[in-house]
């Protein structure tokens, strides 16, 4: 069986750690071929928040594409991609995807996923939200994108930021079709059952 192809894009919004952890979880899996696109602003945020260079991050992916590489394999619907995740997704990238403004590889690869009916998970990282942000999210969702802001879950009783990131990333990967990476599921309030 051929490996699943997953595109991970990291844009300039705060939260580069989400994309980094996603790549770490996928890096050693022989059943997944990861294609990475790091936007120019994403590279700046990556250095600032995680202390990583694009070259260091690129080692976690099977294929690394430049953000301006419009002729890349993932820019064509004829290239089989199983899912794409934008982690984090800036409002600029969200807006480009919502309005089919494909001026870079992140927005073009996302547009291809939408037109081919493939899962596209956008971990939109912005707060507070004004009506323009909400309209862009609605437009992207109407086109078929999955809007998954990295909102922390507290029911698993996390004790660190790493645990919050881990749970959020695993939820996003599961929503993209990688169900075996899902976090431990909620099984109901056991205290009330006893």
TrEMBL record:
The Flavoprotein domain, residue ranges: 5-167
The enzyme's E.C. designation: 2.5.1.129
Signal sequence residues: none
A Pfam family this chain is assigned to: Flavoprotein
Residues where FMN binds: 12-14, 39, 90-93, 125
Enzyme class at the top of the EC tree: transferase
Stored SUPFAM superfamilies: Homo-oligomeric flavin-containing Cys decarboxylases, HFCD
UniProt entry tagged with the keyword Flavoprotein: yes
GO MF annotations in UniProt: flavin prenyltransferase activity
Keywords of this entry: Flavoprotein, FMN, Prenyltransferase, Transferase
The keyword Flavoprotein appears for this protein: yes
InterPro entries: Flavin_trans-like, Flavoprotein, UbiX-like
Binding site for dimethylallyl phosphate: 155, 171
Reaction catalysis annotation: dimethylallyl phosphate + FMNH2 = prenylated FMNH2 + phosphate
Cited function: Flavin prenyltransferase that catalyzes the synthesis of the prenylated FMN cofactor (prenyl-FMN) for 4-hydroxy-3-polyprenylbenzoic acid decarboxylase UbiD. The prenyltransferase is metal-independent and links a dimethylallyl moiety from dimethylallyl monophosphate (DMAP) to the flavin N5 and C6 atoms of FMN.
Similarity comment: Belongs to the UbiX/PAD1 family.
Name of this chain's protein: Flavin prenyltransferase UbiX
Species, as recorded: Amycolatopsis nalaikhensis
Organism placement in taxonomy: Bacteria, Bacillati, Actinomycetota, Actinomycetes, Pseudonocardiales
């Amino acid at each position: 069986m051929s490996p699943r192809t997953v595109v991970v894009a990291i844009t300039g919004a705060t939260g580069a750690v989400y994309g980094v952890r996603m790549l770490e979880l996928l890096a050693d899996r022989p059943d997944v071929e990861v294609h990475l696109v790091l936007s120019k602003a994403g590279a700046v945020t990556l250095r600032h928040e995680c202390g990583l260079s694009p070259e260091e991050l690129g080692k976690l992916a099977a294929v690394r594409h430049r953000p301006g590489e419009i002729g890349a394999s993932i820019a064509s619907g004829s290239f089989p991609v199983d899912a794409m995740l934008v982690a984090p997704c800036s409002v600029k990238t969200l807006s480009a995807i919502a309005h089919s403004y494909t001026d870079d590889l992140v927005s073009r690869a996302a547009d291809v996923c939408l037109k081919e009916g493939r899962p596209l998970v956008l971990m939109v990282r912005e707060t507070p939200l004004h009506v323009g942000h909400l309209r862009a999210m609605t437009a992207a969702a109407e086109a078929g994108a999955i809007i998954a802001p990295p909102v922390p879950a507290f029911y698993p009783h996390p004790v660190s930021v790493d645990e919050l990131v881990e749970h959020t990333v695993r939820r996003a990967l599961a929503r993209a079709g990688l169900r075996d990476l899902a976090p431990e599921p909620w099984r109901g309030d056991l205290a009330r059952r006893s």
